[in-house]
Give the backbone structure.
Amino acid sequence: MSDQTDDTIKLIRQCYLFTEAQEDSLKRLAQLSHIETLPKGRDIFSAGDPPDGLRILISGLVRTWINNAEGRELTLTLIEPGDAFGEIALLDGAERSANTTVLEPARLLLLRQSAFDKVLEDDPALMRHLIVLLCDRLRRNTEDLRGFAFHDMGARLAAKLFELTMVHAVVSGNTAVFGRKFSQTELANMLGATREAINKRLSALSYDEVLSIKNGLITILDLQALRALGQMD
């Protein structure tokens, strides 16, 4: 087995979908996958597109986003190296529900739908693992609905930042500059979230030009937008 195949197997194994896959299944997936190299600004897929497979980001940065009712682009998440995306369409075969765009030149591993289906037929254990994952997703969706009155973490983060702005920042018009640093760990502890989740949401808010972070200090660039994102009405 080549070093390249070994590296590909390691990359696939890191994806939560394949942690229980047999070694033979991993080898087949590695052999049937291929590397994509995409420039900045390239759209990988758009909402409504048919699924073509699962991707794992090797290097670079990718944005997932949707358009709201007013046509404004809203960032859902920023995908970083090691993250997998497109897995839902891989499992249910439905059309894409969001858009993805390359923000920094990217290398990705593409596992095509046809290759995934072939491996799944010969690996019952992997099929059972995926059923468990789907059940877990249903449970988490139920919990999300149960906690909807408290809003999602992104809204709670926006509300908390707006609250902190009123106490710890100098406000000027529609902008505000914090006078002290708030680490991602501090924010995570305030919201009962993980630091990684806070990092992704801060990155999304930064990309949408709601805030900026320099040397650990947060500057709110659009207080009205931040307040709207954190509305608890």
Summary: DSSP finds nine helices and ten strands in the chain. The two ends are 58 Å apart (CA to CA). The domain at 151-230 is CATH 1.10.10.10 (Arc Repressor Mutant, subunit A). The longest strand covers residues 53-67.
